[in-house]
Specification:
60 residues; two-stranded antiparallel ribbon; 4 strands; two-stranded parallel ribbon; alpha+beta
Length: 60
Amino acid sequence: MPVVTVLQGPRDVELKRDLVARITDAFVDSYKIPAEAVQVWVTEVPTDSWGTAGKLTADS
């Protein structure tokens, strides 16, 4: 059973629904497994809890 973890900043629920569906479809197509075998975990990190290039994302 594949488990995909997506670590990202906050996104709209509709975007997450689409992402989960597309990731699931990719595994179904590539591995020829049932969609029920694929788990996608979305972990959202607030923009004040991660940074890039030495700056908090919230400050960009």
